[in-house]
Design a protein that fits this description.
It is a single chain. By secondary structure, this protein is mainly β. The chain has one domain: TolB, C-terminal domain (Neuraminidase). Helix content is 8%, strand content 42%. The protein has five helices and 29 strands. Strands 1, 22, 23, 24, 25, 26, 27, 28 and 29 form a nine-stranded mixed beta sheet that branches. Strands 2-3-4-5 form a four-stranded antiparallel beta sheet, with no helix packed on it. The chain has a four-stranded antiparallel beta sheet with strand order 6-7-8-9, with no helix packed on it. β28 and β29 form a beta hairpin.
Length: 360
């Protein structure tokens, strides 16, 4: 077997263990999550290791505080979303430079406490933030000029969070260039599709039964997830917490199939789901602290769904709901993805670290 040499540009990465992240926040975590973290050392079964084939320059990435989104438009322009820096950068890879396109601020045209970012093929992009707890979505041109936006009613609730990143609500945002998809289970549906003016145009998917319907916040937490667009038409939905599930919907919003996400890496979690969840205060409300099973997910151009777990394994499902691959990303060390973005049929951009991997 040929040896794979790591490119010189690859930077060592030491993943932060799940338990260390949560312990630093003073959270008591179930034995299920502890068992999941232990699987970092070794995983039974066939796991493909994907080595990094490219990356943004280390000196450039070092300028970002928390680059949790790296996406590429159809014309090759790169954009980096720096969550803690409250900034979106336009990146010139050839020159090794980055220019601030959108900067920190609560007024329109700036971003404050951002939670999600997405780029359309035409190089327009959206950023969702929540200044003073009020959720907002803004649309920007390729140069950072504000093209429009809208605000959502009510106040943001962090039902699912990991490492300081809120994964539900505006944090679940997907952008097609023609509309915005979000998960807002409090509306009674799994996916809400908004027009660019902020008008809801359709709702997709019924909330699943959780056994916690009497505890509204816990019930909604277990119905939090990521809406995804199928390039062949239709939608996918990935539940973030509790028993992890992948659903596929057709163009009309009808459920096509549902699959329980399973694997050796998840066995400790599925066999030791907690029955009691600690509570915490969120903007004056008491909500359950629910640890996610899934960190992020994305759909490849071939329609396969890549689902990255809280532990650093990624499951790949085909259009029929069959698991076809289990992979890990390696760039000096194992990289647990905070975001995935497919920049062509066989390239995926991964943060943190801003690494590029070949998928074939």
């Amino acid at each position: 077997m040929a040896r794979v040499s790591m490119p010189r540009h690859v930077r060592p990465f030491v993943p932060t263990p799940v338990m260390a992240r949560l312990a630093a926040a003073g959270v008591v975590v179930s034995l299920a999550v502890a068992s999941l973290a232990a699987t970092q050392a070794a995983s039974p079964g066939r796991v493909e290791i994907l080595p990094s084939v490219d990356a943004l320059p280390a000196a450039l990435v070092g300028e970002f505080r928390d680059p949790i989104g790296w996406q590429r438009a159809a014309d090759g322009r790169d954009f980096v979303f720096d969550r803690r820096g409250h900034t979106v950068y336009g990146v010139d890879r050839a020159a090794g430079t980055a220019r601030k396109l959108v900067e920190i601020g609560g007024e329109d045209g700036r971003i404050l406490e951002p939670g999600a970012f997405a780029v359309a093929p035409n190089a327009t992009f959206v950023v969702a933030d929540a200044p003073r707890g009020l959720e907002r979505v803004q649309i920007f041109g390729a140069g950072g000029e504000r093209l429009g936006g809208f605000r959502l009613p009510g106040r943001a609730t962090a039902r699912i969070s990991f490492g300081g990143l809120v994964l539900n609500g505006v944090g679940s945002l997907q952008y097609t260039g023609r509309g915005v998809l979000m998960n807002q289970p409090e509306t009674g549906s799994l996916i809400t599709v908004y027009g660019l003016a902020g008008t809801p145009v359709r709702s997709i998917g019924r909330l699943r039964r959780t056994g916690h319907e009497a505890d509204r916040e816990l019930h909604l937490a277990f119905n939090s997830g990521l809406p995804l667009v199928d390039p062949a038409g239709g939608y996918y939905f990935v539940f973030l917490a509790g028993p992890p599930v992948l659903q596929k919907y057709d163009r009309e919003g009808g459920l096509v199939w549902e699959r329980l996400i399973q694997g050796r890496e998840l066995d400790p979690y599925l066999t030791a789901l907690p029955t009691v969840w600690p509570r915490r205060q969120d903007r004056g409300r008491e909500v359950p602290l629910v640890v996610p099973t899934v960190r992020t997910a994305a759909v490849a151009p071939d329609g396969r769904v890549w689902i990255s777990l809280t532990v650093p394994f990624t499951y790949v499902y085909d259009g029929e709901g069959e698991k076809v691959r289990t992979v890990q990303f390696r760039a000096g060390g194992i990289v647990p993805p905070a975001s995935l973005f497919f920049a062509g049929p066989d390239r995926v951009l991964v943060t943190p670290g801003c690494y590029e991997f070949a998928t074939s």
